[in-house]
User: Fold this.
Amino acid sequence: LSEDESKLDVVSGLNLKSSSLPELRRIFTQTINKGIHGLCFSPYVEGQGAGDILTEEQIRRRIDIIQPYTSSIRSFSCTEGNEMIPSIAREKGLKTMVGAWISNDKRRNEQEINELVKLAEEGLVDIATIGNEVLLRKELSAVEIIAYLKEARSRIPDHIPIGYVDAYYQFLEVPGLANHCDVILINCYPFWEGADENYALAYLDQMYNLVQGAAQGKEVIITETGWPSQGQSVQAAQPNEYNAIKYFLNVQHWAKEKQVACYYFSSFDESWKVVQEGEVGTRWGLWDKNERSKYSS
Assistant:
């Protein structure tokens, strides 16, 4: 074994290298039937995309599909129908990580935060998030994001933790961010960094440990991680069903062993993302665009 492979074996604790695809599907089914901590919720059905108005019916149908397999769901916006997600999730006994979508649209930012505050006051929010990858998209400065965090903290009930979500390295490059978050919320994608699947979990573990070292003792939650089943490769990272299942299984095992709260990305494939990310951006779901399980045996 190389040094990297030895490290991966220590980190993962799962030996899947000789497993066939049918065997991986069987283990996937066993694992997801036992339940996972969290799922990122993809509400947009085929033909829809960000900005379209969601219906209560589609939210209910999709939450009904994933509810048996997760204890918590993460939503990304509080407008355009997304504000219905927390109450429907709560009806189904799920915990909620509820996000206000923050961008360079200042008017919408205020609408998002106002609606998040309302949902929080109604008892529908377990963790409140202000923004998702705003620094990564270069839409606002860290100073502007911190101002929104301060505003949200002053208005959201004290017992509800708040945080800002971004790629893990933003919390290393902008250390002041952590000061204004109750929980540190990180997106970790070994795939987008071109990691060979055999070493992907070691990459994830390193991402988490780096941020934990800068987290001032606050809980670090992985708000997104996943692996696509199809599309274009990124350096050594190959998107296919075999690698996607292996990564899911390794992440779930690692999160349980390390007692890390982890929201897997994503619940459903999302065709609308083809514009920004190509085909690979559309294939991150555990269920396909027609709401069928992709990996169960």
Remarks:
- The chain has a mean pLDDT of 95.
- Residues 241-258 form the longest helix (18 residues).
